[in-house]
Amino acid sequence: MSVAKVFLEYLRGLDEAKRMLRAGNVVLPFVVFAALQCLVLLALASFPLRPFSAFMVPVVQWLGGPHAVHYPSHYLLLPEMYHRVYLPLTATVGFALFGWAVFMMADHFAREGARVPSAPSLARSLPAMVVVGVVYVTAATAVPALFTWLSGRVGNDKLAGLFTLAGALGSVAIQALLVYALLFIRTAGSGPLGALRRSAACGRSRFAVTVLILLTVVLAHLPIDSLLGQPDKVVLKFKPELVLYLLAAGVVVELITSYVLFAATTSLVLSRREDPF
Questions:
Q1: Number of domains into which the chain is organized
Q2: Residue 276 falls within a domain, yes or no?
Q3: Distance between CA 272 and CA 167 in Å, rounded?
Q4: Mean pLDDT value of segment 48-59
Q5: How many angstroms separate the CA atoms of 63 and 218, rounded?
Q6: 94-117 as b/e, with b when 16 or more CB fall inside 10 Å?
Q7: d(CA 129, CA 192)
Q8: Contact between residue 223 and residue 185 where contact means Cβ atoms under 8 Å apart
C-alpha cells in the first residue's frame, strides 16, 4: 500500500469515527470507564478523609509503601499507585466495556448496510473479551518494560534512549496486531484465541494505517505522560496537587483516544461494503 493510500485510509478511519458519534450511545462505554477511573483517583486522593480512611489507608500503603500516606510524598507516588490499579482495571472491566462499544459499532454499520454477521450474545462474549484484554495489556506493557530493563544495563545514554524508543515502537506494533480481536469476537463469534489469531491477520493486512492510528493516540497522551513520568519535578516546581489534576486530565484524553482507536479501527474493516470476513 502506497504512503498516499495509507494516509487516505487513516483519514477515512478518523472520519468514520467522527461520523459514528451521531449514534451517541457508542460513546457510553468509554464514559463509564472514565467515570470508574475518576472514582479510583478520588479514592486514592481522599484516603485521609472519613469514611475513606478506614479502608483506604491500608490500600494506599500497600500500593505505594509507608511514605505514600504522607504529604507531599503521596502525590509523588500517586502516578505509580494509580498505574498499579489502572492496568488490571483496563484488562478486565475496561476491555469488557470496549467490547460492548465494538458490539454497538458493528450494529451501527449493519444498519448502514455493511455485511456484518449476526451478533453473538454480549453476556456470553464477556469472558473472551476479558481474556483478550489481559493478553493485550500484558503484551503492550511487557515489551516496553523489557526494553527499559535492557536500557538500564547498557551503560550508554544514547543506546539506552534507543532501547526505550524500540520498546515503545514494539508496544505499538503489538497493539496493531491485537486491536481487532474484540471486533472478531463480535463478527465471527470467535473465542479469545481465535479472535487473537484473526486480529493478527487483520492487523498485518492493515499494519501501516493501524500503526498510524495508534501513534496518533500515543502523541495525544505524550504531553501529560511526559509530565507524569517526572512527578518529582512537578511536585517541586508546582503544587503537589497538580499531579492529581494531570492524572484526571489523562482520563479525559483517554476517553477520547480510546474511542478514536476502537472506532477508527472498526471502521477500517466494517465501512467497506464488501464482505471482510
A1: 1
A2: no
A3: 33
A4: 82
A5: 26
A6: bbbbbbbbbbbbbbbbbeeebebe
A7: 7
A8: no
